[in-house]
Each structure stands twice: as C-alpha cells, then as structure tokens.
Amino acid sequence: MRTKLAAGNWKMNGLKAALSELGEMAAAASGPAEVLICPPVTLVAAAADAAEGLAIGGQDCHAKASGAHTGDVSAAMLADAGAEYVILGHSERRTDHDEHDEDVRAKCEAAWDAGLKVVLCVGESLEEREASNTLDIIGGQLAKSIPDGATGHNLVVAYEPIWAIGTGKVPTTDQIGEVHDFMRARLEKRFGEGVGRSVRLLYGGSVKPSNAGEIFAVSNVDGALVGGASLKAADFVPIIEALNASAG
Ligand code: PGA
User: Which residues bind substrate (predicted)?
Assistant: First the structure.
C-alpha cells in the first residue's frame, strides 16, 4: 500500500510569521497520510525545527553538490537544513528558469545523492491538451526527467497541468484518472511492476478543500501537491483530512 501524501508548495510566499501555520498542520498530520510542507528556502531550517510530525522539503536544488554558483542551493544544503524532500521540475521553474527535462534529471540525481526524496513535476500546457498531445508530453517528461534508479522511496511524481496551476481550473476526474493510469503504466514498464506500483502519484493544480475529496477518489491518485491552499492551515487542514478519509 502506498502512503498517501499531502504536499504543500509555498512557492515564494512566507516570512517567519508564516511558521505559526505549521502547528495546526502538524496536528492534522497524525492520520494515515504523510504531510509535507515545502516553504521558501529561507524557512526550511526553522520549519524543520518547528514542525514535529511534518516532513519539510525544498522547492528546487542545484545539480552540482557545491561550487561557484551564486544564489543557488545544493541538495546537501537542503538536507543539512532538515529537508527530507525537494520539489523538482515544477512548471514555474521550467518557465522562469528555462529548466528542461535534462536539467531536472541532473537535479534529481543530485538530490538522490544527498539522500533527499524527490517530488518530480510533469504537466502539459493548454495548447498541448487542446491538440490532444497530453499523454505524449507526459510520457516524454517521465522518460527524460526521471533518472534510472527510481524507487517508491526516493520518487514521487506530481501531475500538474500548467493550465490548472493557480487558475481555479481543474481537469475533470476522468482527465486526471487517464493521466494517472498512464503514468502508473509507464513507471511499471520502465522500472518493473514492484517499483512502478510503489511510486506515489500526486495531482496538483487548484486543489482546494471543496474539490479535494473527489480528486482523492480518482484511481492512482495518492495525494496532492497544493500551492495557494497550503499557505493557511484553515485551507490545508481540510485537504489533509479529506486525504486521511480517502485512506480509509
Ligand atoms: P495551486 O498550485 O494549488 O496554487 O494551483 C499548485 C502548484 O503549483 O504546485
């Protein structure tokens, strides 16, 4: 059985005062679902110290272990600060920083070398969906951005349609199920049934308390990667609770 995962991506939001949200989130993390918060890098160490029972993650790391890369953060630095996870390949990184699958793959290897678990994001644009290219795009991203050596322990994949991120638009449950079943099949084919079945698959893009329950009922959805609705405990706790309920 895969442990459900409710992951919050705070993006470039949150000053020290935001750490006060973590207490209630940690209290909600006593159920069957694992709860992960990825705050901005400035808060990773403090969040890891403050939040017993929550997993903490970074939102990106450099592909190199150290060196002359001003402003960048290595996977080992995140791990040293108390992070257990790192999000890689988010569409905002792919767009804002021109990251491609090859970059994501190199970062993933660096993260694994440092002992971090990776939440690796894939997703199609609206144009790609409208041209019926969604599964081709997702298949290509999975093939090119995941290195060899994936396991159910070191990899989580998040399906995040770009057009659903921060827009309030959500795919139908059939559309989510189609992509998640496809990703499961691709992972089983490449890594073998055992590993392929053990990698957790998250849906991300405008997940809210009001739609979480129906999304968590979709086949091969093992949780969510949540942006805006993870910033406040009042929004994120009901999502954690819906995931706990779906775990039975
Ligand atoms: P959103 O962001 O929940 O605000 O749509 C999701 C994400 O980008 O991870």
Answer: 9-11, 166, 206, 227-228
Helix (H) / strand (E) containing 55: strand 55-58
CATH of the domain at 15: 3.20.20.70
Cα separation, 109 vs 123, in Å, equals: 20
| Number of independent structural domains in the chain | 1
Please name the residue that has the structure tokens 């939040």: 51
Task: Give the Cα separation of 204 and 162 in Å (integer).
Answer: 9
Residue pLDDT, tens place only, 2-25: 999 999 999 999 999 999 999 999
DSSP-H helix ranges across 37-148: 44-50, 75-80, 91-96, 101-113, 126-130, 134-145
Rounded distance from Cα 105 to ligand 1 centre (Å): 22
For ligand 1, whether the C-beta of 89 sits within 6 Å is: no
Which residue range(s) make up the domain with 231?
5-247
In this prediction the pTM is 0.98
CB 37 within 8 A of CB 6: no
Average pLDDT, the chain: 97
Residue 158 CA: nearest ligand 1 atom is: 9
Query: 160 catalytic, yes or no?
Result: yes
C-alpha of residue 34 to centroid of ligand 1, in Å: 18
